[in-house]
């Protein structure tokens, strides 16, 4: 069957339900919760990427705006049951620029942060066995958002992670939200020309969301999901009978929410990759091999 989310017949709906469930565990394994130990809570999300044995966390810049200078209390986990969380340092963070006090929606259409993990931190994460790092083949930096394709936003809402699950133990409950490109159904989003070249809008409707049992539910408030991945689950025109996890591609990183319209905004993954390309000359050959030399030099520089 040729897939289109406009087809709401039983076969199409069954495929969307099946694929939406199938991708959750693989996405969870490459999505790292970010903990603020000073505040005693989980407060943001990141996606893990490895290029030529160099490991990164891709996330949103605004989550660090309360710490314009000095040490940032960011901690990650190796994912072991009962394992500890451990800090990574300020020197590893590279962020898009904003004014201070910050207003990312007004003065920074990118809102991107790339964290270079130390070899020690990356080794510790891998040794835990719970997480893995994406490789370049699992990202799509050039794809255009297709209104008839099927997407997922995955992150850790603070609403689901407000308290310790046990004394001294922080939880990490995720939201896997299957969705579509937002098309102005509840009001238009004001975008500048710069925004249109950078951003992605995904529907996060409070009156149309169903759980796995088909019951209408209110999705959690998205605060804490910033830095989580925006994924294309099934591309328009694909054969749903031959669909596999190889079709799953990371296309963006969630960065903001329009609460009145119930819309999530993200930044195309091209821009996180561009930050890595510009800052790591030694990784450019691998990126050019994956995505094309001419295109990388034209789009990333």
CATH class equals: Mainly Beta
What is the helix content? Answer: 10-25%
CATH architecture: Beta Barrel
Write the CATH fold name.
Thrombin, subunit H
Order of helices and strands: HHEEEEEEHEHEEEEHEEEEHHH
Q: Uncertain spans, ≥5 residues at pLDDT below 50?
A: none
> Reading side by side through the largest sheet, how are the strands ordered?
5-4-1-2-3-7-6
Net shape: globular
Query: Mind describing the biggest β-sheet?
Result: 7 strands, antiparallel
What does this structure look like?
Helices cover 21% and strands 27% of the residues. A hairpin with a 4-residue loop joins strand 1 and strand 2. The chain is globular, with a radius of gyration of 19 Å. It has a single domain, classed as Thrombin, subunit H. The protein has 8 helices and 15 strands. A 7-stranded antiparallel beta sheet has the order 5-4-1-2-3-7-6, with helices on both faces. Strands 11-8-13-14-15-12 form a 6-stranded antiparallel beta sheet. Strands 9-10 form a two-stranded antiparallel ribbon. By secondary structure, it is α+β, with helices and mostly antiparallel strands.
């Amino acid at each position: 069957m040729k897939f289109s989310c406009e087809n709401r017949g039983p076969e199409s709906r069954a495929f969307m339900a099946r694929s939406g469930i199938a991708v959750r565990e693989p996405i969870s394994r490459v999505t790292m919760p970010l903990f603020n130990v000073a505040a005693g809570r989980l407060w943001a999300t990141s996606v893990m990427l490895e290029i030529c044995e160099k490991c990164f966390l891709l996330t949103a810049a605004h989550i660090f705006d309360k710490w314009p200078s000095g040490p940032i209390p960011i901690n990650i986990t190796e994912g072991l049951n009962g394992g500890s969380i451990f800090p990574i340092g300020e020197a590893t963070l590279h962020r898009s620029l904003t004014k201070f006090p910050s207003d990312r929606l007004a003065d920074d259409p990118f809102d991107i942060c790339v964290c270079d993990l130390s070899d020690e931190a990356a080794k510790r994460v891998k040794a835990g066995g719970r997480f893995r790092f994406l490789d370049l083949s699992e990202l799509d930096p050039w794809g255009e958002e297709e209104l008839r394709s099927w997407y997922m936003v995955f992150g850790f809402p603070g609403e689901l992670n407000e308290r310790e699950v046990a004394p001294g133990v922080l939880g990490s409950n995720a939201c896997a939200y299957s969705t579509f490109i937002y098309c102005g159904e509840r009001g238009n989003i004001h975008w500048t020309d710069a925004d249109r070249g950078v951003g992605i809008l995904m529907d996060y409707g409070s009156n149309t969301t169903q759980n796995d049992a088909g019951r209408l539910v209110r999705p959690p408030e998205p605060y804490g999901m910033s830095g989580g991945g925006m994924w294309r689950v099934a591309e328009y025109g694909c054969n749903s009978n031959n669909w596999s996890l190889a079709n799953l591609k990371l296309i963006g990183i969630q960065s903001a929410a329009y609460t009145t319209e119930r819309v999530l905004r993200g930044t195309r993954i091209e821009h996180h990759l561009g930050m890595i390309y510009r800052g790591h000359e030694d990784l450019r050959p691998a990126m050019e091999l994956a995505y094309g030399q001419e295109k990388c030099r034209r789009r990333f520089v």
